[in-house]
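For practice. Any example?
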Amino acid sequence: MEPREDRHGGLAALSWPGRVVVAIAVAVVTVAVAVHLAMVFLHVAPANTLSKQQDATIDAYIYPEFEQNWKLFAPNPLQQNVAVQARARVAQEGGGTRTTGWVDLSAQDGERIRGNPFPSHTAQNELRRAWDFYTGSHDSENQPEGMRGELSQAYVERIVTDRFAQRLDGTVDSIQLRSATTRVPAPDWSDERFDTETEYRALPWWDVSEAARAERGAGS
């Protein structure tokens, strides 16, 4: 008589050390999900004693990747197209530097989304939300408003520097960003009339060399 096959599967088929590892992994994931949900809830909920006491901790966790906003909906939906553009100064291997032309990063994201039934979250939201985060935490003179302002600049800087580094030969030493804002024309049936000429907001050059990053890291 042939021995009967062991038909137990799943966790029952694991050794005791394997079950312990799975149990620990499940516990870690459960705690991580609980912490994330709690942070997001405290961020979007009306101000309360706990959220006021832990405001700095909540902001450090939420911004910039998990920020919540409702600008798609009434009463004030977005009525303009905002394109984020950038250029870079690149150190050449043989010495000297060159400055690139303005690159429309938003248009590049649009190309990655157009015709793609499953576009990535990065292509859809990363740059757009980073720029919105920056403009919402800086004044008209591009001065940061508290810790959020510093975080937003570091976030935008990292995104743009990484994108240039992937496409350019040489070392990116500094970058400059600008936005090109164009109001969406009013529909034919509307009596509204307004200027649809593109307006630009240019930021100063940012030093993103290794020496500058090391200096900022030492000062933080």
Residues 16-44 form the longest helix (29 residues). Strands lie at 80-91, 97-99, 103-104, 171-183, 199-202, 206-207. The chain has a mean pLDDT of 83.
